[in-house]
Design brief:
α2 packs antiparallel against α3. The chain has one domain. By secondary structure, it is mainly α. The protein contains three helices and no strands. The longest helix has 19 residues.
Length: 61
């Protein structure tokens, strides 16, 4: 089993599209703890931000 540090290291080098999928799956696994509307809003905002970065509208930090 990978350590948390190993998982983070592996995840940070994924392409943005795969990071988005990973984020969605992690959030889904915790969905019972989150309000569904807030969850959807967060996912949509993250996808919007990734699109803005990909299109050069804003820069990644």
């Amino acid at each position: 089993m990978l350590s948390l540090d190993q998982i983070i290291a592996e995840a940070t080098v994924l392409p943005d599209a795969e990071k988005t999928i990973l984020i969605e799956k992690l959030i889904e696994s915790m969905a019972e703890r989150f309000d569904q509307d807030l969850l959807l809003e967060g996912i949509q905002k993250a996808q919007q931000r990734l699109t803005e970065i990909d299109n050069g509208i804003v820069q990644a930090i």
